[in-house]
Give the backbone structure.
Amino acid sequence: MVNNPASALKLLLSFDIIPERANCYYEFMLNEMVPRMQVHGLHTIEAWHTAYGDRPLRLIVMAARDLETLECALDSEDWRELEGRLLDLVTNYERRVATARSQFQFFNTESRERF
């Protein structure tokens, strides 16, 4: 998956699942989003649920081995289609790219800085 940790990047997706669409969301993520993005070199490495606090309900983290892989994946027709379908299932959607670190990463919603 990630050959050179120094050049690895993470794609962070945060959002709230629309309650009425939760079953569709889970089916979509497991059967379509995750496997189709793996083909493009984006591997889901973390999925977090916010149990308490003022943060989006979900944080999904995908890793790419380098910038070229990430850019190719995000420029693909697959990504455009999948992101569009995801937007029908969630609200408060944001995405960020961050240099991969071994510790938990998220973005501060007030300052929009990456952590």
About this structure: The chain has one domain: 5-99. The two ends are 23 Å apart (CA to CA). The mean pLDDT is 85.
